[in-house]
Design a protein that fits this description.
Blueprint: E1 2-3, E2 7-13, E3 24-29, E4 36-40, E5 45-48, E6 50-53, E7 59-63, E8 67-74, E9 91-92, H1 96-112, H2 123-128, H3 139-150, H4 158-164, H5 169-180, H6 184-194, H7 206-212, H8 218-229, H9 233-238
Antiparallel strand pairs: 1-2, 2-8, 3-6, 3-8, 4-5, 4-7, 6-9
């Protein structure tokens, strides 16, 4: 797994995931060519080698094989209107050149893993052939986003953020949703759940990880993580024991 502040690439076990609800643009690929299956919300099952899911869309992904390739793009960092056409859809899509590219990059990264740092790699150049267009953001909302991203575990409230950027509470909430596409509460919850990825190879207990990522207790931690990833935290940690994590 390769984690950057704005992107994630994962190659590993899918697990028996229930419905999940991610805060970024999700891209799922079959590593072998065998089709993946997806059910979006309460809809019918669909299948394809490449599946795209926009932020905050509940879905469930299955595969006959144990492994999957996936990319996650943080929504506040990219302009959704300028994403490649196939990334502006929802469900199975046809983009064979992109599929080949991701599989080739996976091989390249797997060969580099364990031998060198990923610092020399440019995420967007590798996977997309160049930088994705950034999302234009109001400077006040950008400051709040930077604050949350810098410390997702902090008990940051909407009241505090509104006051910090000199907006009324209601105006701040409206502007935040308008600029990011997510409510403040959903954004903060997603960033906290995302921060778990940085802890999956730690030897700490789940209670310690819960506290380190900002959850008040292990019960709240488990419930929130299952809502986002469709898996219990214990299953995520257990399934990551042989995972190489690059940050």
């Amino acid at each position: 797994m390769w984690i950057t502040p704005q992107r994630v690439f994962y190659a590993g076990l899918l697990g028996a995931a229930a419905e999940r609800n991610m805060g970024g643009h999700g891209i799922y690929l079959s590593p072998t060519g065998a089709p993946l299956r997806i059910r979006i919300g309460g809809g019918a099952w669909q299948s394809g080698e490449l599946i795209v899911v926009p932020p905050q869309v509940p879905h469930r992904v299955e595969t006959e094989h144990r492994t999957i390739l996936s990319l996650l793009i943080e929504s506040e960092f990219v302009d959704p209107a300028q994403l490649p056409d196939f990334l502006q859809r929802c469900g199975p899509v046809e983009a064979p050149a992109f599929v080949r590219r991701v599989r080739d990059v996976h091989v390249q990264l797997a060969e580099a893993s364990g031998r060198e740092s990923f610092d020399r790699f440019d995420f967007d150049a590798l996977f997309f052939g160049g930088p994705l267009a950034p999302r234009p953001l109001d400077a006040r909302i950008r400051r709040v986003i930077e604050r949350i991203n810098a410390d997702p575990a902090a008990p940051t409230s909407a009241d505090e953020c509104a006051a910090a950027v000199k907006l009324s509470f209601s105006r701040f909430l409206h502007l935040f949703k308008q600029e990011t596409g997510l409510t403040f509460r959903a954004f903060r919850a997603w960033k906290r759940a995302r921060s778990l990825l940085r802890h999956v190879r730690q030897s700490a207990t789940l209670t310690d990880i819960a506290l380190d990522t900002g959850y008040p207790d292990s019960t709240h931690f488990s419930h929130s993580i299952r809502q986002v990833y469709g898996l219990r935290p214990s299953d995520i940690v257990a399934g990551s024991r042989r995972l190489a994590v690059h940050q």
